[in-house]
């Protein structure tokens, strides 16, 4: 085919352009005369040029229109590929279909386990076990996003990476299991008082896995079909050692340097440094940010009868066991210093050397737990009880510490959904709180320490809650096995690092009732019975190790020990209801072999 004497190239997929001849006015101007009929004659040169120019312009416009139509065909720009599959020019629905077909072809490769290395340990991880998947809809949406200019859509090419998802919680659980004992927990900063002396607990970093970076690395390795190494990282608490030292210098030490006067319209009370130390708390949140506050409840307990001359403390309704049944003890309203204002204002004057006076207003104070609310909790029967034995009689310091902890906890009511913390309930167990020096385990050996023996009460309380079927939140067994405790099902405690916590996961309130004799401590839980039974099934002891003999320098601080074997063991809490086992919960622990400590010089070979 020819146009204006020129030969056209062979037909292709470009739009076909047709040019239609049109009439144009003369190029040269003419005088105004009376129109006469048009005479035939040859076309003038200017006219031919306009005809040709107009035809070319129309062709270009039509070609551009056709190219635009071509470029914008489909939702996904032309030249776009995902996983090697061309999605360009397709509608979203067609692109989704094509991508799913490609994933089906790759299903064997995408389901193959990948090797994940954490520190020095490796594990084969199945993608489905951690929720690795390609979000097809999100990937197609990303593929459809492009610049609006038609040229880029017409001639551009690009590769779009698929959108990969992973179940963060399941992946974290897997990585934590692989991490095992390679990692370490973060040591939170703290400031604790021994008497009126503030002592720092400096922060130490956790050695752990960065969840975000680990997830990104695992997703990339899965797509590439390659093994991946997840590095261990240090995660520091938000409060540094320098900040702990600053808080001690600027607040903790000045706080207990002198008393504070509490002034009200009913008179004044002197708050001594010992009471200030009891009420001033430094608490770290989950990020490790250390924040000071005044715990007014603890301050009131430290002041004892001092506040009685200016205020009447409200009393919660309580429960007591009479004749084998719980009986409600009525509460009463009171008139007290506003706790929020006192905490704020006292904290403001504690750093000062002068002007250590707080003016407070007395307001009506209602008990938190009234008789009506207490009755609604449904505490009506004993659901569990546990007893352990201790040697030495009531006169020994260790026995006194056990009894003091029992007194601190006796009568505590835990509402449905609440979590009980033994450390939070008793606070620091120091001399001012009635605790004495007794043997405690520090760095693998027995040394004198204030509050030694409280672990026996902790174990007794833990077992009472365990056999009540309550939720275990936090506990840690001893490093060494002691025959006076049930293996595995026992717990130590150490202020402030180690705690014992349980949650009341029942719809009823519960009462903690403690009692003791000259050789036993008993904890009972009263509530409404839910389960038929809660029992323990033990697996066999394994990996038994024998103790070594260690000679220590003799002296008043040296404590000998007979030693004990080390072993690992599993215990299963089996809970039945309506004649069926509804839960079988595994508890595992490994005890180190306790050395045989001898307070004497090592004999010559």
TrEMBL record:
Domain called YoaR-like putative peptidoglycan binding: residue spans: 251-358
Alphabetized, the UniProt keywords read: Membrane, Transmembrane, Transmembrane helix
Which residue ranges are recorded for the region named Disordered? Answer: 22-46
Bias type Pro residues, positions = 32-43
PROSITE patterns the record matches: TAT
Which residues are listed as membrane-spanning? 50-73
- What protein name does the entry list? Vancomycin resistance protein YoaR, contains peptidoglycan-binding and VanW domains
Q: Which organism is it from?
A: Micromonospora narathiwatensis
The record lists the lineage as:
Bacteria, Bacillati, Actinomycetota, Actinomycetes, Micromonosporales
